[in-house]
TrEMBL record:
It comes from Actinomadura spongiicola. One of its GO terms (molecular function) is dioxygenase activity. Residues 45-150 form the Rieske domain. This is Aromatic ring-hydroxylating dioxygenase subunit alpha. SUPFAM superfamilies: Bet v1-like, ISP domain. Pfam families: Aromatic_hydrox (PF11723), Rieske (PF00355). Residues 1-12 have a biased composition (Low complexity).
Length: 409
C-alpha cells in the first residue's frame, strides 16, 4: 500500500513555508507559452550561418529542433527540410545533379529547390510515377548582416525580415562584426542571462573587457516598454555600498574609469570608460535605457560608439546559437578602423572572454525551481513580454484558421 503522506525526511520541514509549499517559484506555469517553448518560439526569422559558408554544396543546420538543409543556387539560398521523405536519410548528404535542384545521396530523388517538388527519381527513370506526388517542406530565407536567416512558422506567410530586425540596423548604414558560436544550454537561459539586471556588475567585474571600466555595486532599475522592446532604465547607480555587519564593498580601483560626469545625462548609454561623445545615429534613437530585449530573444546593449546585439537562436531544447553582433554606424573609409578594432580586440575580449563568462553561466543554470530577487524584475518582464506577444500571435493565427496545437492559456 502506498502511504498518502510520505515520511518526513529530516530537514524537509525547515525548507517549506508555513503553508506547506516549497519557497520560491517551482515552475514557469505563470507563463504557459514561455514554459512550453523549450525548443524556441515559432513565427520568427532566425540567423543560422554566415552567408559566405552557404555554397552550392548542401549544409545542415538544426533550428527549433528541426533539421534544415541549406544550399545556394543561382545566387539565392534555399532551405528544405533535411530528411528525405523516401527513407529518411539527410538530404544534406546529397548533391546537385541538375540546376535548381538537389538530389538525395541514397536513390537520387531530386527536389526542386524553390518549391520542394519531387521532379525526378533518378533510379526509377524519367517516367517515374512518384514524381509530382511528393513535395518536400521548404523554408523562406533571407540574407542580412552577412548571415543567412530562416523563417520558422506554422504555415503563415513570413513577415518581412526588416520588421523583426532592430530598427536602427534597417534604416542606417552600419558596419558589423559578427561571431556565431554553438553553445550548450537552453536558449531561454541565454536570453535571461543577457537581460539579467544583476549579474554583469558582479560576474563580469573580473573580465578583461571591463578591466579598466568601473562597475557599480547595484542600481535602481525600472523596466520600460516601448514598441516591441523592453528597456532597463537605470535611475541610480551605487558605486560603493556598506553592508551592515559585513563592511564596505566596491568593485572600484584607481585604474578603473567611471563614465564621465558629462555623460550623466546619457543614462541610456553603457559605460565604456572614457568616451565623451555619443555617435549621432545612436543618440538619435533616444532609447529609454541602455539594455533592451525583444522577441524572439534579441538583446541590444547601447554604448557611445557602437551597439552590441546578441541573437539567441534555439537549436534544440539543450543548445542554442550565440550570435554576437557589434555594429558601428559609419560608412566609407571610416569603416576601416572598425575592422581593426573588431578583429584585434572586440572579437576576443567582448565576444570572446567576456561573453565566455555568460556561456559558462548559461551552461550551469538549472531553473526552475528558482528563488528570484529584486533585480530579477528584468527576467519577469521579459517572460511577460514573450507570453503576451505569443498569446496575441496564437489568437491571430487561430483567426486565420491555422491550427497551432497551441498551449491552452
Ligand atoms: S532515401 Fe532519399 S532517395 Fe531514397
Ligand atoms: Fe553577461
Amino acid at each position: 500500500m502506498v502511504a498518502d503522506t510520505p515520511a518526513r525526511t529530516p530537514g524537509t520541514r525547515s525548507r517549506r513555508s508555513r503553508r506547506g509549499r516549497l519557497p520560491g517559484r517551482q515552475d514557469w506555469s505563470t507563463w504557459p507559452h514561455y514554459q512550453a517553448a523549450d525548443a524556441g518560439f515559432r513565427g520568427y526569422w532566425y540567423p543560422v550561418a554566415f552567408s559566405s559558408r552557404i555554397t552550392g554544396r548542401p549544409t545542415a543546420v538544426t533550428l527549433l529542433g528541426e533539421r534544415v538543409m541549406l544550399m545556394r543556387d543561382g545566387g539565392a539560398v534555399h532551405a528544405l527540410k533535411d530528411r528525405c521523405p523516401h527513407r529518411g536519410v539527410p538530404l544534406s548528404y546529397g548533391a546537385q545533379q541538375f540546376p535548381g535542384t538537389v538530389s538525395c545521396v541514397y536513390h537520387g530523388w531530386t527536389f526542386d529547390l524553390r518549391s520542394g517538388d519531387l521532379v525526378a527519381a533518378i533510379t526509377d527513370g524519367p517516367a517515374s510515377p512518384i514524381c509530382g506526388k511528393v513535395t518536400q517542406p521548404t523554408f523562406e530565407t533571407a540574407e542580412r548582416l552577412g548571415m543567412v536567416w530562416i523563417f520558422v512558422g506554422d504555415g503563415e506567410d513570413a513577415p518581412p525580415i526588416d520588421e523583426q530586425l532592430p530598427e536602427e540596423l534597417v534604416s542606417n548604414p552600419a558596419v558589423v562584426g559578427v561571431r556565431i558560436q554553438r553553445r550548450v544550454g537552453n536558449w531561454r537561459f541565454a536570453v535571461e542571462n543577457g537581460y539579467d539586471e544583476g549579474h554583469a556588475k558582479y560576474l563580469h567585474r573580473t573580465s578583461l573587457w571591463r578591466l579598466f571600466k568601473a562597475m557599480p555595486v547595484y542600481n535602481d532599475t525600472r523596466i520600460v516598454r516601448r514598441g516591441r522592446w523592453i528597456y532597463r532604465v537605470q535611475d541610480e547607480q551605487y558605486w560603493e555600498a556598506d553592508f551592515p555587519g559585513l563592511g564596505r564593498w566596491s568593485g572600484q580601483a584607481w585604474y578603473k574609469l567611471k563614465p564621465p560626469k558629462k555623460n550623466a545625462g546619457h543614462r541610456n548609454i553603457g559605460n565604456t570608460g572614457g568616451s565623451q561623445k555619443v555617435n549621432a545615429t545612436i543618440e538619435a534613437q533616444d532609447f529609454p535605457g541602455f539594455a533592451s530585449v525583444s522577441m524572439p530573444g534579441v538583446l541590444r546593449i547601447t554604448y557611445p560608439h557602437f551597439i552590441h546585439y546578441e541573437f539567441y537562436v534555439p537549436v534544440d531544447a539543450d543548445h542554442h546559437l550565440y550570435v554576437g553582433v557589434m555594429a558601428e554606424f559609419r560608412r566609407g573609409l571610416r569603416t576601416l578602423p572598425f575592422y581593426a578594432k573588431y578583429l584585434g580586440a572586440v572579437r576576443w575580449l567582448f565576444h570572446g572572454q567576456f561573453s565566455g563568462q555568460d556561456k559558462w553561466m548559461v551552461e550551469v543554470t538549472d531553473a526552475p525551481p528558482e528563488r528570484l530577487y529584486r533585480p530579477d524584475e528584468s527576467l519577469l518582464q521579459w517572460r511577460r513580454l514573450a507570453e503576451d506577444v505569443t498569446k496575441a500571435r496564437a489568437a491571430r493565427l487561430r483567426d486565420e484558421g491555422l491550427d497551432l496545437g497551441d498551449v491552452e492559456a
